Prior knowledge:
Number of strands: 0
Number of helices: 13
Order of helices and strands: HHHHHHHHHHHHH
Largest sheet: none
Shape: globular
Strand content: under 5%
Oligomer: single chain
Low-confidence stretches: 151-177
Amino acid sequence: xxxxxxxxxxxxxxxxxxxxxxxxxxxxxxxxxxxxxxxxxxxxxxxxxxxxxxxxxxxxxxxxxxxxxxxxxxxxxxxxxxxxxxxxxxxxxxxxxxxxxxxxxxxxxxxxxxxxxxxxxxxxxxxxxxxxxxxxxxxxxxxxxxxxxxxxxxxxxxxxxxxxxxxxxxxxxxxxxxxxxxxxxxxxxxxxxxxxxxxxxxxxxxxxxxxxxxxxxxxxxxxxxxxxxxxxxxxxxxxxxxxxxxxxxxxxxxxxxxxxxxxxxxxxxxxxxxxx
Length: 276
């Protein structure tokens, strides 16, 4: 019998869906809402918490890409061992409290947010929970293939396609833009910055600002921008603003919003460049 996927008991899915909510509120400058969500994530994913340990088991399988198959198999083995060491009864209680907090303090609609790698997260969840040796092996192979980058996305045949379409529609209704990998990384460091006095956030931000400035400086050499006075001026203004952030407190929402928007701008420049 195949294991049924319960998205609300999929720690990684709920975490990613809540991140979407946080980014949306930050971009909309609803700082009260974003602070509420950040505090909620900090409360349930603090250092040593069961939800954080559970999330790390998922992350090791869906955030590692283009890996050698042998390395992917080793990571999968270690993640499975780590998952088994978590008390499922205690985890269920922590998940229930987390779900209750989301429903009460944010909105039940969070669980309908579109998460692009939903199918991959569902595959991992099923692999962790299936009692069938045959299904487990099949799902493990899907995960390893995904980590190796040999498939665009792991698929699970019995995922409710209607629910998946609902996720897409709900997300598109509420937010016009998707969340880029680098935006998700930035927000993740921002939310967990309380645990290490913002050390990892500052390190990531320093590297990311350097990358963004390099891309924008390269963009200035493009003919499209050189011949467009307004575009050239705006690009220079963005670079100037990024230079100012070197001496600005990273945790300020104003800085976060600007960097998130610049990441989107840079992605568009890359996209345009590849299409030209």
